[in-house]
Amino acid sequence: MTDTLTPVLTDNWDEDRAWTLAAYERRGGYEALKQAVRIDPDDLIALVKDSGLRGRGGAGFPTGMKWSFIPQDNPQPKYLVVNADESEPGTCKDIPLMMASPHTLVEGVIIASRAIRAEKAFIYVRGEVLHVVRRLRAAVREAYDAGYLGEDILGSGTRLDIVVHAGAGAYICGEETALLDSLEGRRGQPRLRPPFPAVAGLYASPTVINNVESIASVPAIVRGGVEWFGSMGSEKSKGFTIYSLSGHVRRPGQYEAPLGITLRELLDLGGGMREGSELKFWTPGGSSTPILTAEHLDVPLDYEGVSAVGSMLGTKALQVFDQTTSVIRAVLRWTEFYKHESCGKCTPCREGTWWMVQILRRLDKGEGQPGDIELLQDLCSNILGRSFCALGDGATSPITSAIEYFREEFEAAMTTPSWELFPPAASTLFAKEGVAS
Amino acid sequence: MTVTEPGATDVTPVELVTLTIDDVEVSVPKGTLVIRAAELIGTEIPRFCDHPLLEPVGACRQCLVEVPDAGNGRGMPKPQASCTLEVAPGMVVKTQVTSATADKAQRGNLEFLLANHPLDCPVCDKGGECPLQNQALSHGNGESRFIESKRLFAKPVNVSENVLLDRERCVLCQRCTRFSEEIAGDPFIALLERGAQQQIGIADGEPFHSYFSGNTIQICPVGALTSADYRFRSRPFDLVSVPSVAEHDACGAAIRVDHRRDKVMRRLAGDDPEVNEEWITDKDRFAFTWSTREDRLRTPLVRDPETGELQPMSWPGALAVAARGLAGTRAGVLTGGRLTLEDAYAYAKFARVALGTNDIDFRSRPVTDEETAFLTHYVAGTGRGVTYRDLDQAGTVVLVGLEPEDEAGTLFLRLRKAVKNGTRVIALASHLTRGLHKLDAELVTVAPGGEAEALAQLSLTGTDVVLAGERLGQVAGGLSAAADLARRSGARLAWVPRRAGDRGALDAGCLPTLFPGGRPVAEAEARADLAAAWGIDQLPDAKGRDTSGIVAALASGELTSAVVGGVELADLPDPAAARAALEAAGFVVSLEVRASDVSPYADVVLPVAPAVEKSGTFVTWEGRRRPFDTVLEVSGSLPDVRVLAGIAEELGAPLGIRTVAAARRELDELGAWDGARAPFEAQPAAVAAAPAGTVVLDTWKQLIDDGRLQDGADTYRLTARPARLKANAATLAAAGVEPGESARLSTERGAAEFIADVADLPDGVVWVPANSEGVNVRSVLAAGPGDPVTLQPVEWDVRTPESTISPSKRHTQREGAQREGGVTGDE
User: How many Cβ atoms are within 10 Å of A231's Cβ, its own excluded?
Assistant: First the structure.
């Protein structure tokens, strides 16, 4: 089954000291940049557009199209901002990438900046991952020393400065406009749109905001070309991507595969469920995507495939839960996360998550009251599509989907605590055996 | 002054957009928000964060509507916040009236808002006038499904001494923070924390000290922000609301006075898009208890010839004593800034008809002949000139002799709005104040006295405006230079006085050179015209004495009596000399609301009504009349016009008017003078070099200070800016003063101490507030803007002269002053 893997972004992770410039260059690093500086910026945009690369941050918006929205006649400076604020529960792809091979991102930033004609790029990294911040800063320093950054990059006349900015620990700052406010030194809360960042983003200037993985994919596209990229993936979801597999699986980790792979295949790659584990439910793309069950094992994990079954590909964070897991407890934990991370700007998200946590806590204790399920569903319907940004929408996904697939557990919660139905000790979370190191 | 036809505004064609709301087709100007377009068809979409004068934010999510067609044939998948959605041609909108989705979204949102909102409406200030209460009733579900415990916060939080925050009631709509940032420019309150813990707060040690903080209380859609003074004092439905006009400056801000059982409980901003929009200063809002202080005069007082004490007397008796005392004397009339147009008219007529003199001046402050001539020629009786709205359209606004944030708060906010719309502000001032900074003003640094020369250097265009504050009148050649600048550039010029009654008094004829309506005393035709209208044989034709002249003449005995109304002696150029003059005067009649520093010298003290107890008109700096009605009917509380009419009748020279209405009618019938205007002779600039060893003083009154019209508003006063001395580092160093340490300002009259701060003033200039923290600069130093003063460090010596008013002991000690050879301080 190893054929299914298409290591591109992860290809050099096994290199000794892969994060250094020397190691990166040993594996062909910055070759794409050397090509790109000789390509006209508009052609670079066309190249990425033609490749069919879609945003890897969750929404799947075509990257090249986003770049082409930048009004080049706008006299303001243009900015590239990389969203490296990976904080979604279950999602674990950008941080390992930046940890293992920060130069892949740096090279992508330089090429993307050339394409949109930005002379300043920002990498907004989740502040908690200090080690990654250090690796990125070291990589940027190495790139400056090698002449890949600064004035007149590789004699091309292009100039670029990269600022690695550490966030202060807020999930909301992964929302692109809140990220911009935070980057500007303000309170991180989402902005009203329009104006869209492409027109008035960072410092009210045209700004492209891309996910780490999207930008990191660009050098490979420059090197490999449109056809090669399109040879992977499905018709509308082209290329390779990193799936992060976690939970009750034998070998959790990052699996780079063409878009459209199925969970069944990924589980095989990961050595299957743990000993004694049976798949109960899973998230296709982090906690903000509605959960799926064993019946969805063969759903192609691309943008279209997952949405066809009522969920979202999201960040391709596959959290796998087995039969020992209380769905109510899992949903409660996620909802507590959203309550904690709600920025507070809008009413439905701020008050709704706070309220639903209290209902779920009651259910977790087996103290549910008649009508609680309908109440949760109704509260979710009053949040979904009513909140200011997608955080509120995401907060409802685990609840509504859990009720859809596991209503009987919610009904049982009227009388029985989750720890009686699903004793924590039974969870292989604590199993000593069956887990690969 | 350039005169424009009232109502002649530029009409630019507005592009209309037609859309359908709830099956009703409506056309609105392009750019209109759906929430306001819906109002036009009579549908009120519930809202909290939305405010028509603030930028849209879309935070509360209460105003969600369904949009089946965005105007492009496609519907919007989710309900949209109508407060952030602009109309589009062909758009179809369904509000809660026709859409079950919108209705459910709104009900659901209200339930969320109420989940954590305490149900303390019965004790909440806002209960009864609360948008949350009202909209919960009209758009909410009757019962909440929320059975858990509500979020708790300690309360209240004093975001300032004046504004208290109840975080449990707050719905986090951000109106207050947006107002503070967008309108006032004082972002001292902000959102803190996040999620359900999100709250409004201040930075440590940085209280919400904004001159406009009270507006946040008014626009708070719940009872989260409350006024320290009004909190728990009354219920909205027990209050009687009367529209009125603020009496604290020449801006004419519309206010609403709420009273209960003959007592004013609070004042709110009125809504007047042409003047103050929906904002007022904290002074206009909180400073209203001054007229009910213990020293309020309730009955006429007459000085007992034997004991020398003032004794109560009946009205007829007191009027008769006043008339007897004035009869046959040579009288001067001094009036002050609190007078309404009608009352000022009564003084103007009383001086001419009953006293036979032109010795009348409303300027209870330093005056110059140049200013008198300027006001006579350019301002008096010219009607409406530059307006607030004109500021929006002005290319550049030049400020000279005017610190709008301190001296004309409403004007300041309108200027800020204009600046946002692209108007440029140039300020001729000694330093870039916080207010000027908030106006993005380009500073032309001038030492006081140098304004005329700086004006001569400016070039403007016909779309520009020059706002000349009343302090410019004290600068030799200042008003001449401003008039010249307007003349040569085509820019429009407006004179901005400080006090509410000033412009009205000028129009009413309280000036030695002017009769009512701008009629020049010097014009025979004007005299004849007015004499005929008043039905008297002749009017005094000699140019009268101005304020300084009257004071001097009283001191020298050329004048033997005085009628004084609304004057604080401490405002006069030399308060000590003014005291001596009134002491010397044979007979003094004082018309006052409260006992004042004139009372000790008065032979007859006649109580008059404060603005709240009478009707009248203030005239704004624009020349706009701002009539108001009586708020509180208090029997025996008489307007000045009634009292003056009584004295005049006793003198056998009746005024022919006894009421405010009659005065207004007569003034209107007289109309404005349309004949030749008295000539104005431009005066040259003259900058007097400060004597060696002295520095030049710059000073004005801060908005919140020791002014008597703010007495009693104690919590409000605690939000005043500290009284600091400002000078540049070189000036302080030359005087041996350490920044942050005490500095001593002195003249031969006295001394005062201030903590010194470094600021961007020119060399050799110091600025101090004119009347803050117990130091009235005029009273203590007998000095004003442009005067030389001595700056010294304070030696911390027990033998520091006791005349000194120090920051720690702000009180006057006369013995020390006498040892210094001068009289200091008021009593």
Answer: 13
